[in-house]
Amino acid sequence: MYEDENVREQRPEDETEHRHGDELAEGFAAGFEDALEQGDALSAESIALEALAANLEVERIYDHVIAPGLIRIGHLWQSGEASVADEHLATAISQQVMASLFPKMLLKTNQDHQRIMLAGPAGEDHVLGLRMIADTLEGAGYDVIYLGPNVPTDALLDACRKHKPRALGLTAAMPSTVPALVEAIEAVLELEESPAVFVGGRTVEQARTLGVDVPAANTCEEVVEFVANLVDKPVLREKFGRLLEAIYAEWQEKSSGLAEHGADPDPESGELGMASAFSNSALVAAESARGAARDAFRLKRTCLP
Question: How far is Cα 57 from Cα 295, in angstroms, rounded to an integer?
Answer without folding.
Answer: 22
